[in-house]
Amino acid sequence: MNDPNTINQLRDGDQLAFRLVFDEYHARVYGYVYKKTGSAYTAEEGMQLTFVKLWNYRQSLKPELSLFTQIFRIASTTMIDLVRSEEHKRVGLQSIRTESESRPDPLQSMEENDLKKKVTVLVRQLPTMQKRVFEMSRIEEKSYREIAVALSISIKTVETHISRALKFLRQNLNLFSFLVFVFILLRS
Fold first, then answer.
1. Which of 40, 75, 133, 151 can pair with 50 through a Cys bridge, CB separation 3.0 to 4.6 Å?
2. CATH fold of 1-93, please?
3. Domain 107-188 has CATH 1.10.150.450
4. Domains of the chain: which residue ranges?
């Protein structure tokens, strides 16, 4: 893959180039985060967020630097942010969320609602325990520890259920719909 050419294609919003980059690097990013954290959930989340950020900040990519270097810088900072976030949850700190002051775009809201409906249909297809864990995490916003205690399972089992649920969603939504879904989760 020709890095400067690929970077320019990404900067121009070329979705096919993005798909090729995702296909080439997603497993390596997952492996990198997993090796550093030992958490399948953090690795999955870190990989997804890395590519959300790559797309959102594609205009900032530098053609003179290798794409590999830039992707792994994003992955590294994303992983650090995730680990810090998890640490804050463990000690009971609540993240502060601010609402956007601008009015939402009605078209964007309709697209988000359609996507949420698709995700709801897919979540219903998950195995019972996986579905329950996913809902407790993403809808009820419970920590992994709270879920583990409530369901009498280990935190690692919670991570596995979340990781598998996200993998199922990623496989059944097209890449951009999945990334939009992840972005919506981060915003809400």
1. 75
2. Rna Polymerase Sigma Factor; Chain: A (1.10.1740)
3. no
4. 1-93, 107-188
Res 174 pLDDT > 70: no
Alpha carbon distance 42, 2 (integer Å): 30
- Separation of alpha carbons 142 and 154, rounded Å: 14
Contact 119, 173 (CB under 8 A): yes
Tens digit of pLDDT for each residue in 33-89?
Answer: 888 888 888 888 899 999 999 998 889 999 898 999 999 999 988 888 887 777 655
Contacts of 65 (CB under 8 A, 6+ apart): none
Distances (CA, A) of 34 to 61, 76, 90, 182: 25, 11, 19, 19
Q: 33: helix, coil or strand? A: helix
**What is the model's pTM?**
0.51
